[in-house]
Records
---
Amino acid sequence: MKDRSNFTSKLGFVLAASGSAVGLGNIWRFPYLAAQYGGGTFLLIYLILAVTFGFTLMTAEIAIGRKTGLSAIGAFKVLDKRFNFLGILAVVVPVIIFPYYSVIGGWVVKYFAVFISGGVKASAGDTYFTDFIGGTFQPIGWFLLFLALTAVVVLCGVEKGIEKVSKIMMPILVVLTIIISVYGLTLDGAMEGLVYYIKPHMADVSAKTILAAMGQLFYSMSLAMGIMITYGSYMKKTDSLESSVRQIELFDTGIAFLAGLMIIPAVFAFSGGDRSALSAGPGLMFMTLPKVFASMKFGGAIGTIFFLLVLFAALTSAISLMETIVSVFMDRFGWKRRFTGILVAILAALMGIPSSLGFGPLGFITWNNLSILDIMDFLSNSVLMPIVAFFTCIFVGFIIKPKAIADEVKETGEPFKAEGMFNIMIKWVAPIFLVIILASSIASGLGWFKI
Ligand code: PHE
């Protein structure tokens, strides 16, 4: 990604951006949040936010990147010196996410290894997952392995290869997710779960649900951290920006929806209607899916392929996270790629270890019942991302003005269909909403009140 080459085609751009967007956020994080926050209620709120907020912010970020041809740090500075801080703030986000993301990535590698060595029955045991993450060296070992895999790719800079592999792996992931969901729905009790997942209950709508959906949106679409600005800087001026954004959104949201469909009805089936199973949190995918596979014909083989694909999706996202950090350090300090990559990997290893140990030896460190990993997740998704998103809105709405973005979108000669919505969202709705969200998230995080 060093030389600012363009993506060869619009499809190439959409796939590369989707490679960053589609990851553990869709398959691991979305289902457990949806399970925790009221199923259909969460789903509905998420969908509404995706087509309004998500669309607005992603369009703004990609347009800023394409307009300036620079990554976040340079782009804001070039457009207005006073917003230099925003580029820097945006980079703090991946620095927080990358280490704990790799901890979860390590769990995926572990499950892939267990499945490929025929451990499907064992992995379906009730305490298998909690015993695993409660350990000391095992989870750290798998975490470091995932980190090393990511680092190798970033150091070699084989984006071309990734683009090619994505084209094959992503469609297979979709097909497999559909097969597993359909099978899951045939299990006893799954229908009740399907209803829970699809049917919104207006009475359940709360500030907390909206906050969780918003954090998930930024995270899942890789927004508010400069990644989409960087990707936009590689996009050709002749490709339609608006339809690219729609496609990335559709892809990202579609996979998240399918992942929920695969996991939530199965939770109902295996817990015998015990609703407390829904609040399992980060471990949900790792506890429910092995049970599905264990009860399935050829479950061992299907599970193996499944975890391989999830691993792949996680790697493409982790690579985009690490690449952002590495390229910023390289630009800022003039360091070589190899040195910077190794340094970032070592720092990430050190930062990730506490998150990994937070379910075992460091389990006593909690804050409002959150483990260390959850605290990192809260900090990035519920605090920093809304802050970056807020300033991005102000920047576009009042400094460079929405017209600058609209002009960039219309560069191809096509109309900007959602321009009206974009203008209102970026100037008024989004910033006001973001301030409310941020204030309530910080206040509740500090324990001032429970939302
Ligand atoms: N969007 C990725 C996912 O859903 C995670 C990610 C967040 C990647 C931020 C890059 C930047 O898993």
Note: Residues 20-21, 23-26, 94, 97, 219-220, 222, 225, 227, 317, 320-321 surround phenylalanine (CB under 6 Å).
---
Amino acid sequence: MKVALITGITGQDGSYLAEHLLDLGYEVHGIVRRVALEDPTHRLQRLSGFIDRLHLHAASLERFPSLFSVVSEVQPDELYHLAAQSFVSYSFDDAFSTFRTNIDGTHFVLECAKQLVPKCRIYFAGSSEMFGHANEVPQTEKTRFYPRSPYGISKVTGFDLSRNYREAYKMFVASGILFNHESPRRGFEFVTRKITSYVARIKRGELKELPLGNLDAKRDWGFAGDYVQAMHLMLQQDCPEDFVIATGETNSVREFCQLAFEFAGLNYEDYVVTDPQFYRPAEVHLLLGDATKSKEILGWEPTIKFEELVEMMVMHDLDLLAS
Ligand code: NAP
Ligand code: F7E
């Protein structure tokens, strides 16, 4: 039985990936913060359906010894490094802690693996935010990086660290360059879930408006359940490489709003207001991925279209309030 270790197992992607690996017959271990073990009802909520089948270990990305001791104990065959301060907006408020978590944390994980399990296959969670102000559309594995936020900068550095461990120490480190992916398990601070959760509360008469920032930003939005399958496929190849994972379709925040309100029988123009506090100091205006390489080498393709994704999230949030 293969042993997998996931950092960030309590997050959106970690929870879907853990389920996927359990289905494939893996022994699945996850790193969680100590506070999560002390408050499982809230902090381990995304894992609630299958938590009995997981092995959870307390550690922090900020503390090398804590990671060292978990990797030493688990001896993973595959290590999925998903943990990060992942909210772009917050990274402008606290760039220093974002760098500590995302850059030092990634460095710690890679170094632990090098010292303890050099044959372990490692996945690094790169991001389309690394493209930022992209100089071409669509973006591929060859597109130049031009990050526009401390988060994007931290992911470019994590990506460079991963490649350097691959080249310098001959380790199997693959990076996914994943475009935005969403689901009913998405955090409420991200725009898609913010919209669908507000739609549900507006529909029930609990709220009267939805304050948002830039409605014209365009993103390539896919379904998280599809994207974690690509992470696993990347670690099953003969050689470690980097892969863009995307749908090849882009939509604006405004289009997401329009559709989400329509699924609830409402007109977004009656409820959406713009609020300067939700604009970013530097915006990424347009992202659109070209996942041709992933299709050809991994055999990966997305299964959920934009409209289905929006409907899935709206229906989930309506049901959540009704229950
Ligand atoms: P998420 O829901 O925000 O989950 C982040 C995870 O990281 C959580 O489990 C969180 O634990 C953990 N974490 C944060 N700081 C930590 C620390 N100091 N020590 C230990 N654990 C820590 O993010 P996601 O959407 O699943 O994304 C997974 C990864 O993919 C992230 O690296 C993200 O940057 C990257 N990514 C995401 C997308 C996307 O569209 N979702 C696209 C490209 C790349 P707590 O639950 O305790 O906070
Ligand atoms: O913003 C605009 C905002 O926070 C999307 C992370 O998973 O994907 C995610 O990063 C867009 C931006 O995601 C609001 O300005 C307007 O243009 O949902 P988001 P993100 O910044 O694209 C990448 C690939 C990652 O790697 C990240 O970890 O929506 N927007 N009004 C708003 N965004 C938010 N959050 N809230 C608003 O009110």
Note: The mean pLDDT is 98.
